[in-house]
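Q: What would this chain look like folded?
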Amino acid sequence: MSTESSSTLERFRIKGRRALVTGSSRGIGAAIALAFAEAGADVAIHYTGNAAQARDVAARAAALGVRTGVVQADLGEVDGARRAWDGAVEALGGAPDILVLNASVQLPRSDWLTIPREEFDQQVNVNLHASLELCQLAAPAMTAQRWGRIVTVGSVQEVRPHPHMVVYAATKCAQTSLAVNLARQLAPHGVTVNNLAPGVILTDRNTGRLADETYAAKVRASIPVADFGTPADCAGVALLLCSDAGRYITGQNLFVDGGFGLA
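A: My prediction, written as structure tokens:
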């Protein structure tokens, strides 16, 4: 059912909502978590290894007047997704209404013929299996209250796969398929599911490579808007999808890539 708010901007407010953003101690995840906090949501900051970074993001969120906490969990471990979820429930005082699946593992290989089973499993476990398990944990409470938002974070590599990232690109395609499948099943229960696919975003994952001016110029020239994106570009779209402003959007794959994925 449609819900009318006093203004367009008010529809982007998510005050009183609880959000778990995986991989939110840095980069895109941190930007999304802080955007949610600015919009009024309580946020759980998830990290794998850098507690100091996570605490810093949590402190910045708390300064915006919301409840927050840090949650440590390795999503590649068998109980990782469960630990992340339970930690978020404890930190926020209840089950999250919003789930953003941002954490991922990217293991480049210049020769796909040499990809070992261990690297394949590590990327599949974090990028795909943990996403499924966290959705399984989140859906019951969301459907019971007839309101929920799930956003998977994919990649422009779904349509522009890098030859050194065969497995990573494949997991992102699979994750998007998961989101679209669940969107149809959860829509009647007031829960939307979408995928956000970033392009070349200036985060610590790729700033090292882009420090090479020749390489950076080549990449920039291949992007229609002739510029790189920032985590804030992704955060704005995530807020749209997770607020009432995006209530009529589900099952979509939204590219935040400056047109890089265009044929």
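The first helix runs from residue 27 to 38.
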